[in-house]
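Hey everyone, long-time lurker, first post.

I ran two proteins through the pipeline my lab uses and got sequence/structure pairs for each. Pasting them in order. The first:
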Amino acid sequence: MKLQTILSRLQKLHPKEIDLSLHRVRNLCKKLGNPQEKLKCISIIGTNGKYSTIQAIRAILNEADIKINIYTSPHIQKINERFVFNNKEMEDDNLAKLLAEVEDINSGEPITFFEILTAAYFYYAKNFDNINLLESGLFHRFDATNIINKNLVSIITAIGLDHLDWLPKNEQTIERIIFEKTSSLLTSKIVISKQTDNETLEIIKRNISSNNSKKIIFNEQFVCSENENGFIYYEDKDGGLKLPRPNVLGEFQIQNVATAIATIRNLDLQIKDKHIKNGITKIKSIARLQELKNGKLKNLCKNNKIFVDGSHNPLGSKVLNEYLETLNCNKHIILGMMSNKDHKEYMNYFKNISTLTTIDIPNQPNAINGKELKKKLSRFTNVNYKKSIEDAINSLKLSNNDIILITGSLYLAGEVLNLN
């Protein structure tokens, strides 16, 4: 309860949830002694795949007994997920104590919720001589994590159209998004994951052409492919690795794992091949094609499989549908989304689904109403609306081997996991 009280106060320090600027977080970090300048960091920038790449790095380094800190956003079920130190989420009492101290030092100055959380993370992370994995939030140029002045490597995951409402109407383009994400990368090393098309990759290359960092690019400096016998093959300048299939679903996750391996092999961490082989089979991935194998919602499905996925933009739905197309079964989608997303474009990638059920996202005033979402997606012949997640599941007429996928929002994914 104490933690929730502090979080409520912090959310009231600025009238806007997001206010793109770095001066507030810099001012607070200066009061805190500029802790961000003392950290060893890996920056993760992109639209999709950031969380999965971080979790793959985490799993491999954990196998090698290398302790790390992680800062991600948003959280799925609880805010502690954003504060990982020595591979463990911060407990409520310690997090409350940290935030209260930073709140006191801030002295009531206007600052957004994300900015003060970022400053608090930096302030605590200085106590550890660990590598810090920093996930950049909205874009990167004015993201609060972008006040570090050196890092070990920048990772660019897949970039696509998202958060367009934060750009001027005439600049809601992939070129502008790539500029926002890559124009202020530090000079160290840059690892670029597989992009959706060559055009996107070429725009990224142009944007970082004046950056003197060493560039490590998927399909140029490293490659990875899935073998029909169930293993994957990774290769770079240091040689090839025959690896077991990671414990995550979808070809796009293999690409994220390859990016994690490329990053680690370009750092002087003395990682052995066995650490990589074992690590990629122990990736902890929440709300990314996550199967619910037990719990309240699983019980409603009986013998049918149910998955939850937090994808919420067209790039995410594209790779999600590519995975679904590999399954020979009926697919039932339960969909809830935030109001500011491109709902029609998100669903355009889903070609062969049996039913679509729209729902309201609980506890999210900025979500689109499920009835309105149904109207926007009227091109689907079998689209229904149900108010709750349970009602949606119970309304489905399921046959053997049918699967249920709940998707469209990380906020919905959190509600699903908490409910389950």
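...and the second, right after it:
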Amino acid sequence: MVWMNRRQFLQSLSATTAAGLLGAAKPVSRPNIIFIYADDLGYGDVSCYGATSVHTPHIDSLAAQGLRFTDAHATSATCTPSRYSVMTGQYAWRKKGTGILPGDAPLIIDPHQITLPSVLKQAGYTTGVVGKWHLGLGNGNIDWNEEIKPGPIELGFDYSFIIPATPDRVPCVFLENHRVVNLNPADPIHVSYKAPFPGELTGRDHPELLKMKPSHGHDMDIVDGVSRIGYMEGGKSSLWIDEDIADTLSTKAVRFIEQNSHHPFFLYYPAHDIHVPRLPNRRFVGKTKMGPRGDAIVELDWCVGRILDTLEKQGIAQNTLIIFSSDNGPVVDDGYHDQAVEKLGTHKPAGIYRGGKYSNFDGGTRVPFLVKWTDHVKPGTTSSALVDQIDLLASLATLTGQSLRNDDAPDSINLLPAILGRSRTGRQSLVEEAGSLSLVEGKWKMIRGDQESAYDRYTRIELGNAPDPQLYDRAADPAEQHNVAAAHPEIVKRMLAQLDQIQSSGRSRP
């Protein structure tokens, strides 16, 4: 008898599991898995979802060679909670402190909690994250000049190269594993979100020094000619150059793929584009008529192309599962004067959907979602199955032969057949988070209603807030123009009760 170690057993089990799901005649080797997570990219921002003012050939190739979803959602209309849900399989609103984080926030995921990377690492994958993190670091008082942990490594990643928070927040440095990159010990970094440091210049006081001026907020410390949120001093040798961020991150992603091409790997690639400040490399400036926002979309597409080219060169494209999506819906003016509003033209970042980032309407959470896995996902197909990014954890656990305990990933559902296009059946319902919570079930969407502000005058986005519940027929009125709550009080009552039950139960996974 030949005995197998745990890793060999899991490899055999995952191959058998995949073969059964895919109806294959023979076992399928475990695919490499890459999750490309765009930032603030709307449903209508890429050409395979209808954009005509910008062309995204590399992203479009994922749709042409794979599966395009039309009813896929982020769990939240803002970034941190969406990312939290992807990593943990738990709705972020279940845990306090999971809103948009400052750059010096502590890690909001318990290192003992099961995560997407820890599940795949347990299955024998080498795991890496390259890109925007924004889930906090350390335990509260970060010393940026020493080892910074806990962070991605403690959550199951073998390798980490990250932007700590967002491009518009300090500190404006990269972290590789536990340390700031290129830090000079003689020039230590200090970060504050309360008051500027003596001698540090701010955009509020020195707008003449800025290469991009703020439209609202973003007028604190000046780094690389851009005023940010928060204050920092020191670390001059570690500061990024905004126009080179995409090159830096995509190069690190390419190297991770190259170094791990001979065994199964998982790469989480949360790109920084098209988040503000939008300062794409000069190679992309002027590539669209929409100014920096449009050019940043082109830069994002180029980064996707680099990943695809690397897979081909390494000879592993056929057995790599690629998932592409965005953390929330689009925003045009998110704090800087970059002509995004003036040059928008006929482009509709959210497509036909109402609202955008920060909004309860579908423009806030309905996002592009593309899946490619050569020979296993039928090319050029479209699915209207209701899917949510939170389901990646349970679905990829199933693909790799993992079993979740009852308390693990309490809101993540195994939708692997739908994600691979083998079933048209997706979720029965999902909860979305913005100003209020919303429940989507079949053709209905109910926004609970407990907020007053209906419009953000800075971002010019309809927030979809109201003091009373709203109800929309998603089939007859996908643009959510007609609130039919008054005509269907019984449906509102039932959905409110269902939402209350999901909240109180602490879980939604069966």
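Reply from user beta_strand_b:
Welcome! Quick read of the second one: The longest strand covers residues 32-38. DSSP finds nine helices and 22 strands in the chain.
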